[in-house]
């Protein structure tokens, strides 16, 4: 990070000598700016569903003697409420990941379990989108971390892969050990991501235009959660994508020995 200095205090020591104390404001300013942006963006994102709910409530009032209409508006209120619930829980998750406190539940976690729960969590979404999710690759690998956080991260990639794919296509979720790194690779043959968006989609609330018109249900927080979750585990996320051809997101995490490799050693010591 660049160092930005400001004069904090100047003391005249003699007519020819002035002592000036500088301090680095960059980090503090940056954190403060990020916090302000986050609050502003969050309020903006919350206003949309809240506004929709109050309009729908008015619509229900004026359609009170038309039960069919009332049912339609009521179900749309339900959908907006679900969207609000999803948005708030994602905002909570993201701010927890960004806070510096320790992850809750760190242990050796099976990559098979992470992938299985991520895929299972989106089985209904896949079926209704007509997209097949195919698992493959290495089995029996372990990473150290919070299994819920990691499953959510992989799940967000799976959800996006399904959401931005045409029906009757397939999404691949593969696992590969590369030296002391494990790669969890999520591939789709969907709409792809323009080069100029590829860095920005990991920012909070950023959505590429193409996708916005296609699917308005997203929060724009999914990839930001993925990035922070993976970084908290000492890993990184890589992206390959071509518009019209598809995308591949790769989560890279440090590989650790699994519990069964640790257990026999303990036995011998007894
Ligand atoms: P959202 O809730 O909008 O999906 P994300 O943070 O998960 O938010 O993703 C940010 C944006 O990145 C999406 O709105 C979309 O434009 C783009 N994106 C993410 N994953 C994919 C993908 N697999 N294929 C194409 N575009 C994607």
UniProtKB/TrEMBL annotation:
Keywords: Kinase, Membrane, Phosphoprotein, Transferase, Transmembrane, Transmembrane helix, Two-component regulatory system. One of its GO terms (biological process) is cellular response to phosphate starvation. Residues 41-257 form the Histidine kinase domain. It is found in: Cell membrane. Residues 265-270 have a biased composition (Basic residues). The keyword Phosphoprotein applies. This is Sensor-like histidine kinase SenX3. It comes from Microbacterium rhizomatis. The lineage of its organism: Bacteria, Bacillati, Actinomycetota, Actinomycetes, Micrococcales.
């Amino acid at each position: 990070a660049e160092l930005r200095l400001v004069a904090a205090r100047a003391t005249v020591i003699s007519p020819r000598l002035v002592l000036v104390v500088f301090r680095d404001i960059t980090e503090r300013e940056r954190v403060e700016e990020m916090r302000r942006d986050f609050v502003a963006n969050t309020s903006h994102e919350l206003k949309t569903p809240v506004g929709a709910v109050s309009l729908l409530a008015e619509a229900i009032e004026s359609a009170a003697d038309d039960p069919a209409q009332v049912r339609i508006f009521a179900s749309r209120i339900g959908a907006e409420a679900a969207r609000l619930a999803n948005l708030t829980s994602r905002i909570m998750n993201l701010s927890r990941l960004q806070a510096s406190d320790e992850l809750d539940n760190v242990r050796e976690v099976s990559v098979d379990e992470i992938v299985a729960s991520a895929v299972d969590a989106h089985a209904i979404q896949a079926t209704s989108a007509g997209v097949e999710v195919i698992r493959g690759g290495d089995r029996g690998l372990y990473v150290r971390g919070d299994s819920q956080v990691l499953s959510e991260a992989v799940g967000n990639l799976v959800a996006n892969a399904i959401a931005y794919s045409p029906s009757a296509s397939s999404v691949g979720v593969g696992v590969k050990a590369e030296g002391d790194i494990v790669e969890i690779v999520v591939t789709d043959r969907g709409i792809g991501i323009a080069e100029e968006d590829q860095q920005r989609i990991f920012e909070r609330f950023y959505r590429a235009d193409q996708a916005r018109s296609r699917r308005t249900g997203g929060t724009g927080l999914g990839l930001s959660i993925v990035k922070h979750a993976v970084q908290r585990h000492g890993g990184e996320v890589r992206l390959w994508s071509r518009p019209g051809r598809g995308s591949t997101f790769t989560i890279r995490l440090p590989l650790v020995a699994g519990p069964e490799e640790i257990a026999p050693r303990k036995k011998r010591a007894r």
